[in-house]
Amino acid sequence: MDYVLRTFGLTKIYQDKHVVQNINMTIKKGEIYGLIGKNGAGKTTTLRMILNLINPSSGKVELFGKNPAKNQSIFEKIGSFICHSNFYHNLTAEENLEIHRRLMGVVSKKRTEEMLKKVNLMQYKDKKVEDFSVGMKQRLGIARSMLHYPEFLILDEPTNGLDPQVVKDLRQTLIQLANDYEVAILLSSHILSEVDYLSNVLGIIHEGHLIEELNYEALQEKKKRYLQLSVNDVKKASFILETELNISDYIICDGGIIKVYNKMDSAELNTKMVESSVEVYEMINAHDSLENYFLSITEEGDLIDHYPAN
Ligand SMILES: Nc1ncnc2c1ncn2[C@@H]1O[C@H](COP(=O)(O)OP(=O)(O)OP(=O)(O)O)[C@@H](O)[C@H]1O
Ligand SMILES: [Mg+2]
């Protein structure tokens, strides 16, 4: 298996507080892994450990099947953007990228121009980074991370503060890198919709724990379409669903609401209910929101079941 990243029990403790705890994750070639978690969940700390910018308190990281601490050259295959990236602030955007290009052994000078264009910074190439806005620095950081054709791209909150057109272009670029060049991508966000669209795998991190990983199929499942009924008698309605309509894939929610996941004719369903004196107040086609799911499992008190046993 072409694992680009494997972590084993990755843990970070700051002042007796486990800010990242026992994280086991894997990323394969060409996979886009979205790490999603609220502010302070431990995303940046995890990425910094993967990048060997900080040492784990325990556990280990394997990159391209090797121990990065003993194989520093592995980092040549990796491009990264972590918030507050270091730039030479008194140098221009182009000069900053040029330094990186030469350092990483990329021969063609054209590559610098190509990357500046990719993030819409060509017209600012001669501007000093100290005069850049936060969003412009963000774009420059992303351009730098991709400049040396990395095989593994690690982006911390890449879309934070970017305008919609840049976000759209960035998404396209990332999808293309993964699909056409099998680049593995690990990106984090505290906004689910930012990573949901791109990711093949979604890892939910909460209070330092990786509480759930959803693959593509599971993600689709969570976004399933359903028919939502609002009825006066839930018990009777569910009896009709099962016996008269042979429907088993449904759930009962609070407030007389039933969600029916089986595909079915809503007119027939309504007729059967009315025939059995079940009043149907409302019937709507809807789909589950992953956002709601994310919120529901990261809400206080609902977590204990989701923590993996240590
Ligand atoms: N150097 C440090 N010393 C002490 N505590 C730290 C340090 N770095 C991070 N933390 C704490 O670790 C926890 C996780 O921080 P981290 O930056 O990894 O979260 P995050 O998920 O990236 O959040 P955000 O969405 O705000 O970027 C936070 O409670 C933070 O205060
Ligand atoms: Mg962070």
Structure overview:
Belongs to the ABC transporter superfamily. Keywords: ATP-binding, Nucleotide-binding, Transport. It is built from ten helices and 14 strands. It has 310 residues and is of the alpha/beta class. The chain has two domains: 3-220, Rossmann fold; 224-287, Alpha-Beta Plaits. A hairpin with a 2-residue loop joins strand 9 (201-206) and strand 10 (209-214). The protein starts with a strand and ends in a 13-residue tail after the last helix. The relative contact order is 0.13. Magnesium ion binds at residues 43-44, 156.
What percentage of residues falls in helices of 4 or more residues? 25-40%
User: What's the overall geometry?
Assistant: elongated
Find the CATH superfamily of the largest domain: P-loop containing nucleotide triphosphate hydrolases
The biggest sheet amounts to: 6 strands, mixed
Question: Can you list the ligands bound to this structure?
Answer: adenosine-5'-triphosphate, magnesium ion
Q: What is the tally of beta strands?
A: 14
Query: What is the top-level CATH class of the largest domain?
Result: Alpha Beta
| CATH fold title of the largest domain | Rossmann fold
- Order the strands across the largest sheet as they lie in space: 6-7-8-4-9-10
Beta fraction: 25-35%
**CATH architecture descriptor name of the largest domain:** 3-Layer(aba) Sandwich
Supply database-style keywords.
single chain; 310 residues; alpha/beta; Rossmann fold; Alpha-Beta Plaits; 2 domains; six-stranded mixed β-sheet; four-stranded antiparallel β-sheet; 32% helix; 27% strand; elongated; disordered C terminus; nucleotide-binding; AAA+_ATPase; transport; ATP-binding
